[in-house]
Amino acid sequence: MSKLSITAYTFGIICFIICCSMAIFYGFKFLSNDVTLEEESMEDYKYHFVLVPEELDNDYWRLVEAGAQKAAKEHNVLLEYIGPEQADNDIHIKTLEKVAAAKVDGIFTQGLNNEQFTPLINQIVEKIPVITVDTDASSSNRVAYIGTDNYYAGYLAGKALIEDTKGKANVAIIAGNLEANHQQQRVDGFKEAVKDEQGIEIIAIEESKISRVRAAEKAYLILSEHPEVNAFYGTSALDGIGIARMIEKYDQPSRIYVIGFDTLPETIDYMRKGTIEATVAQEPEEMGYKSIKMMINLIEGKYVPSIVHTNTSILRVKDVPLNDEKGDK
Ligand code: BGC
Fold it and tell me: Which ligand 1 atom minimizes the distance to the CA of 54?
């Protein structure tokens, strides 16, 4: 063996050992009960809360986190943000179990579906208060819910679509996850709004698993199978974006109406270009911000309403400023 290949071989073995050690270290870190929670001294803080989102690096959840961190700072709370890298109910549940096994004063999470989340929330709530944010598990004993009235939000989307399409549209729906409570409610509310409209037909419903790439793929497939579709409704933050990407690539000049959810910068950009006509605006920062105060009030024995609905409205192209003053949160 030449000197060069011995060096390359040794280097390869060293890299392999480093990778294995890291995998074992981080695997152990994830499985053990308290290590992902900050080991910071609690002396500097009054309370220790944890927010477990559907997906860590999702722009929508970063807004919820930003609002919550702002309130946490104002109230001397240590707030940790821990959850699945990519939406995954099993990892979400495992994270909640792990957080519940640690000594924290309050937990915020979604009640994504009743089968998986309700029993766990009920178990946790025996020792740690749980507030559901963004998505409620109303059948659980969570102490409160703060977020959009998701059925109403879906209803608003349906009414906006009727108005904008003059009551004539073949609609396809791309939902984040059809098993999640809030996504079902957003679809049900929409169906209720359009049910008496003779000219509106729902042609297909597909899931994106809250990925913009999958939303684009599903929208493309729908159009290939149902060329008569001329309107899309995306029920979670990245769905409208995925649909818009597909339209810009395959349907130019576009004949398709799109209504999405949320006011993420990408959505606003597509609205400025006219690819997305309308979106349902939620208030993720407000949800995060107010949830902290609710938890503090609860711990301190003050009154906390069991349901707090944040505002929901329809934003149309004409309401979007030409530059970044609003919407680009
Ligand atoms: C929903 C969140 C979801 C996000 C996904 C939002 O519209 O309210 O629950 O995680 O979309 O991108």
Answer: 10
